[in-house]
Amino acid sequence: MFSNSLPTTIFLTGIPGLEPAYMWISIPFCSMYMVALAGNLILILVISTDHSLHTPMYLFLCLLSFTDLALSSTTVPKMLAILWLHAGRITFGGCLAQMFFVHSIFALESSVLLAMAFDRYVAICNPLRYTTILNHGVIVRIGLAGLIRSVAIVSPFIFLLQRLPYCGHHIMAHTYCEHMGIARLACADITVNIVYGLTVALLAMGLDSVLIAVSYSIILHAVFRLPSRDARRKALGTCGSHIGVILVFYIPAFFSFLTHRFGHHHVPRHVHIFLANLYVLVPPVLNPIIYGAKTKDIQRRILRLMSPGQDFV
Q1: Which of 79, 151, 160, 245 has its CA 20 to 30 A from that of 32?
Q2: Which of 162, 165, 169, 156 is nearest to 197 (CA)?
Q3: Could you give the domains of the chain?
Q4: What angle do CA 60, 197, 152 make, to 5 degrees?
Q5: pLDDT on residue 123
Q6: DSSP sequence for the chain
Q7: The G-protein coupled receptors family 1 profile domain covers which part of the protein (predicted)?
Q8: How much is the pTM?
Q9: Which pLDDT band holds residue 226 (cuts at 50, 70, 90)?
C-alpha cells in the first residue's frame, strides 16, 4: 500500500552540530574498535585452540566475543566512514539490514549474558553435576535458542518500518540505522512501532536482567552459607568477571534506552547519538579486558601464545 513512498536511500548525518570535530571524535572511536577487534579475536583464538578451556564458562565467553565482534563490526565501519568521509548514504534496504543485525545481535548478547549467569549458578549451587547439566549439547541448544529468540522478536521491525509512508523524508541524524530512528522519518502515526519497541526491550533486556538478578541472589545466598571464608572468596571470585561484564553491557544500554524513549525532548540529540555509539563500542572493548585481567587461565594462555618458547605457571 505504501511501497511507492519508501525512500530509495537514507542519508545518515552523523552527530549534528559536531561536524567540525569529526576527525577528533573518530580517533577514540577507531582506537576502541581496534582494541575490540584485537581483544575479542585473541579470546576466540585462545579458547578455540586450547581444549582445556572447552568448558561451559569459556565456551559462553567465546560466544560472547563473537557477538561483540558482530555488534561492533555491524556499526563502527559505517560510523567511521561518516566521520572521515561524510559517506552517510545507504540504501533503504541496507539500512533495514543494518538495523536488523544491530538489534538482533544486541538481543543475542543479552541472552548470552543470561546463559553465563546460569552457568555460574550451576557451578556454585550444583558443582557436582556441573559438566552433566551443562554438557556441549545443552550449550549448543542454549545458543540456538538465544539466536532464534533474537531473530524472532526483531524481524517484525522490518515489516513495521516497510508499512510506513515516508513522504520523501530520508535524512536521519545518527551514525547507524536503528529502529526508532528510521520510524521517526515516517509521516504517519508510529505508535505501533513505539509500543512494539518497548515490548522487545522488555522481552530481551528487561526479562534477561531480571533473571540474571534472580540467579545472583540465589548464588549469593548459597555463597554466604559456605563454611569457610576462603571458599566464599573463591566462589565470589569466579563471578567477578561476569558481574563486571553485565554492568558494562546493561548500564549504558538502559541509560541510552531510557533517555531515548522518555528524555527525547530534554536530552540534546548529540547526547543520544553518543550514548548509542557507546553501547555498541564499550562492551566489545571492555569485555576481553575484564576477563583477561581477572581470569588467570586466560592470562596464562595469552602469555603462552605471545611467547611460545616460555612456560607460564
Answers
A1: 151
A2: 156
A3: 9-302 (1.20.1070.10)
A4: 50
A5: 87
A6: --GGGS-SEEEE--STT-GGGHHHHHHHHHHHHHHHHHHHHHHHHHHHH-GGG-SHHHHHHHHHHHHHHHHHHHHHHHHHHHHHH---EEEHHHHHHHHHHHHHHHHHHHHHHHHHHHHHHHHHHSGGGHHHHT-HHHHHHHHHHHHHHHHHHHTHHHHHHHTS--TT--EE-SSS--HHHHHTT-SS--HHHHHHHHHHHIIIIIHHHHHHHHHHHHHHHHHTTSSSHHHHHHHHHHHHHHHHHHHHHHHHHHHHHHHHHHSTTTS-HHHHHHHHHHHHHHHHHHHHHHHHHH-HHHHHHHHHHH-TTS---
A7: 39-291
A8: 0.90
A9: confident
Give the number of other Cβ atoms within 10 Å of residue 159's Cβ.
8
pLDDT tens by residue, 280-295: 898 899 888 888 766 7
